[in-house]
Design brief:
12% of the residues lie in helices and 39% in strands. The protein is mainly beta. It has one domain: Sandwich (Jelly Rolls). The strands form four sheets. Strands 4, 5, 6, 9, 11, 12, 13, 16 and 20 form a nine-stranded mixed sheet that branches. Strands 3, 7, 8, 10, 17, 18, 19 and 21 form an eight-stranded antiparallel sheet that branches. Bound molecules: 2-acetamido-2-deoxy-beta-D-glucopyranose (6 copies). The site of one 2-acetamido-2-deoxy-beta-D-glucopyranose has 2 residues, from loops. Keywords: Lectin, Signal.
Length: 327
């Protein structure tokens, strides 16, 4: 049985929010980026997702990454038991390592694999010792990847975060790729609850903390559709350092994903186009999204709405569909 199913906290049986709307998409007001879809998973009350919603959306991983004797890395095993719901949210756990055997680690993948651009937000807190890497990232393969990473052995009071577009390392010259990876300051140490946000468009990845833009990277921006992933791991290598001897956790309140899919990005998502067309008269058919936190549905202001409608109109026209006069 999956550990997520073992949890039977009463709030888990609350129905998922019934209010969907925003059929015509989401305008991120802080960037003016527009996305067709949203996927919100709340791990804390109110409106906690049910466990079946979780498992329909997220897939805890169970596989082993072998170590390498030359690099002195040790193997790590992603275990489903290290991903579990509790009152504080969804917990990913890396178990304390005793110096022998694989490191017991955690990794969660979105089941959806066609994210193409988005504003991805995760509110969480890392707790525990030095020797773990907490990652929140979009991934297709090792050269189509953009990462937010907390490396717990970074000194200076938990104030560092790494923002990277891969590839960020050139094995031929053994150097980091200029402008593809940055070690930046966190406004709050990682052991305090905060929102990490990665905005991915065709031109840039932008990295935010609690609604404040901290870094823009235009080098090696991924262009292939991929998955959203979250993990917590160490392998005794040069990045994680020696795995923590005590448990490390990443506790997550929510993951809130505004995004295009490979189809909707080109206006080819017929179901979305139809739903938007049907909803177009409704006040909350298109929504505006604030800088930070889980937004409740907000009907776009008239001007914002018109702006979105123009974009949707353009997208739909681009797909060769004919729709009525609704601008
Ligand atoms: C959360 O649940 C409450 C009570 O059922 C409801 O009034 C509220 O609209 C919900 N919020 C969202 C964002 O769905
Ligand atoms: C182990 O690491 C060495 C040095 O980086 C590399 O050449 C080798 O291919 C690795 N072995 C495996 C099995 O990945
Ligand atoms: C872990 O890394 C350290 C430093 O590179 C090394 O001395 C040690 O042998 C490694 N441990 C294992 C089990 O490989
Ligand atoms: C890195 O970015 C800086 C600032 O944008 C720019 O001046 C520099 O040319 C870039 N270097 C490379 C190698 O892309
Ligand atoms: C998302 O897709 C829509 C519809 O095709 C498009 O108008 C919009 O520009 C896309 N967003 C981004 C950030 O590329
Ligand atoms: C507590 C709870 O809601 N448990 C449910 C989790 O999901 C499975 C299947 O999706 C249900 O069978 C459980 O009742």
């Amino acid at each position: 049985m999956h550990p997520l199913l073992l949890v039977s906290l009463p709030f888990l049986v609350l129905p998922a929010p019934a209010h969907t709307a925003c059929e015509c998409g989401h305008l991120i007001t802080s960037t003016n980026d527009f996305f067709t879809h949203r996927l919100l998973t709340r791990f804390t009350p109110p409106n906690t997702s049910t466990n079946s919603t979780l498992l329909a959306t997220w897939e805890p991983q169970t596989w082993l990454v072998p170590g390498n004797l030359t690099q002195l890395t040790v193997s790590r095993r992603n275990e489903a038991a290290n991903v579990f719901l509790s009152a504080g949210g969804l917990t990913l756990r890396q178990r304390g390592w005793d110096g022998k055997g694989p490191v017991s680690a955690a990794e969660l993948h979105s089941i959806r694999d066609n994210f193409l651009f988005g504003s991805f937000r995760m509110r969480g807190v890392v707790r525990g010792g030095e020797g773990a890497v907490a990652g929140f990232f979009v991934y297709y393969d090792d050269s189509e990847e953009s990462d937010v990473e907390i490396v717990t052995r970074d000194a200076d009071g938990g104030r560092w975060v790494h923002y990277t577009n891969h590839p960020a390392y050139d094995p031929n010259t053994d150097t980091l790729t200029p402008n593809a990876t940055f070690k930046d300051l966190l406004a709050k140490p990682w052991w305090e609850m905060q929102e990490h946000r990665l905005d991915w468009t065709a031109e840039t990845t932008k990295f935010w903390q609690d609604g404040v833009l901290k870094r823009t990277i235009s080098k090696n921006v991924p262009s292939h559709p991929g998955k959203v992933m979250i993990n917590l791991w160490a392998n005794n290598g040069s990045w994680s350092g020696q795995p923590s001897s005590i448990d490390v956790t990443l506790e997550i309140e929510y993951v809130d994903l505004y995004f295009n899919t490979s189809e909707s990005n080109e206006g080819r998502d017929e179901a979305w186009n139809r739903a938007c067309e049907t909803a177009k008269g409704k006040k909350d058919a298109h929504c505006e999204v604030g800088a930070e936190g889980v937004s409740e549905n907000r009907a776009a202001a008239r001007s914002g709405g018109a702006r979105i409608m123009k974009r949707v109109w353009t997208a739909v026209l681009g797909a060769g569909l004919v729709i009525g006069r609704w601008l």
